């Protein structure tokens, strides 16, 4: 049993349509994909908030001054 | 592909769009270089990452819903018809056509050509907001313009079936409005809420120049954008089509290249006009800016953008003059808006893309008055009122308004702008400290080894 629905390419290609694995699960794959995308934003925004807080906490006047002078 | 001619047309069209996509990738390279050149050293990594991560985010969201929107909403909906469910279903993320499929060899390549326009729309906004926007906010806004707003405007005004084309006679062959006015308007909507960079305006409100840290990067970046823009022009054409492919509305048997509306043009025409409008823009910008390098290069871009609406039909000399007019107006508008409304557009994107695109649409309405916008029977012809309404829809309705509203929402949650301390210390503060720590450590290790 092939995941793409074909065990051999000795077929009339005019009759061949989709050739990806697990045909029939496209809606499920879309739901998983959208969840991945939304989840990424959530993780990214939390990470950015944490980084900003750490930066503010760790900044010294000297370090800030050096950073400004780098232009 | 049941005949040699069908096979040839399909393979040629696949290859044609594939090449345009590769050229258009250079637009993104150019934007990255340009933004790094324009930003200050303490913000480089943030600037680059902001413009880089829009690529995957817009790509996946354009797969999930952007492409579906283009096919679903050419009628408004409910202006010239309802939602085009059948056409959209074939382009939904769960459609078999959106995959490896031997019965559909072209959808993916055509999808990619549109996707590159989506990246460009977001990249135009990216430059204007550097050095103070939060990455997370920018990426939400990038998805909004790249996979929602610009593709709605493409369905309405940049499709053979778009309601604006049918009713208004809207004509925008190479996207003065469809990419550029909308992106400029969107950038302005974000900037109004975001506010200027610290130090941009003195206490009495006088604007200060914040010089680019690397003029060479800015120069090479803009030349790469020109190159990609030339590829973009090709991507706006259907390269080869038979009269039957235009629904029999074109008579005779001659095959032709067409613009996005399936109205005839040639690659020769658009090549003449691309280069002549680039030249007109560069020359006008050099004069009006008194030889300022930044504005001269940007003016070349603004010139092409101004002439783009009608560059399938203009004479090359018309393209050159239209470009020059657009550049002068965009340049003057930039400084007037900056002084009057305290808008800090770091790279002049609102002027170069927004005002130039807006002006280009209006000029096309007069120059091409009465010309057919489409080969199809019953469509309005090109006219000044249709172009003016189209410019308003692109710049304000689909660009400025959604950007302003979503930016306000993000700002209300404290998610739009980095805190004041972070902006002053630089957005790369921690990554730069970590880099310097690693450099110091490896230097010490090397010195220790050398001393043994």
From TrEMBL, chain A:
Transmembrane segments annotated in the record for this chain: 20-40
Alphabetical keyword list: Membrane, Transmembrane, Transmembrane helix
Superkingdom of source: Bacteria
Protein's name according to its UniProt entry: Uncharacterized protein
Organism for this UniProt entry: Candidatus Doriopsillibacter californiensis
Automatic annotation (TrEMBL), chain B:
Membrane topology: Multi-pass membrane protein
Transmembrane intervals: 15-34, 54-73, 108-130, 137-158, 178-195, 216-241, 261-286, 293-310, 316-334, 346-368, 388-411
InterPro entries named among the record's database cross-references: Ammonium/urea_transptr, NH4_transpt_AmtB-like_dom
Location in or out of the cell: Membrane
Membrane among keywords: yes
Keywords: Ammonia transport, Membrane, Transmembrane, Transmembrane helix, Transport
Domain Ammonium transporter AmtB-like: 20-430
PANTHER family in alphabetical order: AMMONIUM TRANSPORTER
Protein family according to the UniProt entry: Belongs to the ammonia transporter channel (TC 1.A.11.2) family.
Identification of the protein by name: Ammonium transporter
């Amino acid at each position: 049993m092939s995941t793409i629905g074909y065990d051999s390419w000795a077929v009339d290609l005019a009759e061949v349509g989709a050739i990806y694995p697990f045909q029939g699960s496209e809606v499920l794959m879309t739901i998983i994909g959208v969840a991945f995308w939304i989840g990424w934003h959530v993780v990214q925004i939390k990470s950015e908030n944490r980084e900003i807080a750490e930066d503010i906490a760790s900044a010294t006047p000297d370090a800030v001054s050096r950073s400004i002078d780098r232009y | 592909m049941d005949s040699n001619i069908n096979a040839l047309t399909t393979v040629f069209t696949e290859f044609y769009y594939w090449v345009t996509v590769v050229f258009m990738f250079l637009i993104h390279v150019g934007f990255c270089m340009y933004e790094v050149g324009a930003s200050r050293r303490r913000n480089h990594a943030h600037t680059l990452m902001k413009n880089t991560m829009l690529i995957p985010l817009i790509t996946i969201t354009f797969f999930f819903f952007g492409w579906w929107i283009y096919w679903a909403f050419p009628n408004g909906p409910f202006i010239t018809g309802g939602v085009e469910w059948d056409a959209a279903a074939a382009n939904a993320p769960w459609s078999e056509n959106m995959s490896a499929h031997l019965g559909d060899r072209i959808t993916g390549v055509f999808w990619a050509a549109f996707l590159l326009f989506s990246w460009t729309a977001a990249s135009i906004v990216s430059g204007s907001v550097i050095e103070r926007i939060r990455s997370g906010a920018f990426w939400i806004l990038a998805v909004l313009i790249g996979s929602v707003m610009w593709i709605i405007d493409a369905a309405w005004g940049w499709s053979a079936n778009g309601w604006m084309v049918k009713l208004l006679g809207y004509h925008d062959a190479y996207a003065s409005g469809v990419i550029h006015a909308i992106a400029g308007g969107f950038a302005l909507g974000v900037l109004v809420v975001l506010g200027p960079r610290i130090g941009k305006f003195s206490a009495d409100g006088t604007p200060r120049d914040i010089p680019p840290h690397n003029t060479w990067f800015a120069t090479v970046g803009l030349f790469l954008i020109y190159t990609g823009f030339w590829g973009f022009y090709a991507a706006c054409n259907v390269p080869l089509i038979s009269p039957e492919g235009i629904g029999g509305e074109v008579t005779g048997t001659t095959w032709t290249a067409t613009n996005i509306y399936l109205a005839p043009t040639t690659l020769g025409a658009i090549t003449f006009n691309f280069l002549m409008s680039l030249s007109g823009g560069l020359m006008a910008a050099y004069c009006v800016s008194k030889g300022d390098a930044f504005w001269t290069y940007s003016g070349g871009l603004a010139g092409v953008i101004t002439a783009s609406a009608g560059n399938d039909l203009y004479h090359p000399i018309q393209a050159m003059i239209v470009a020059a007019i657009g550049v002068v107006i965009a340049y003057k508008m930039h400084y007037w808006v900056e002084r009057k409304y305290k808008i800090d557009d770091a790279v002049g994107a609102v002027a170069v893309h927004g005002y130039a695109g807006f002006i280009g649409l209006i000029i096309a309405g007069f120059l091409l008055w009465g010309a057919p916008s489409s080969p199809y029977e019953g469509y309005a012809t090109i006219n000044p009122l249709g172009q003016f309404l189209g410019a308003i829809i692109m710049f304000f309705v689909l660009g400025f308004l959604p950007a302003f509203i979503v930016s306000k929402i993000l700002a209300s949650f404290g998610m739009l702008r980095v805190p004041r301390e972070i902006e002053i210390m630089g957005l790369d503060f921690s990554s730069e400290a970590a880099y310097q720590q690693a450099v110091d450590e490896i230097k010490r290790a090397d010195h220790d080894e050398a001393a043994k």
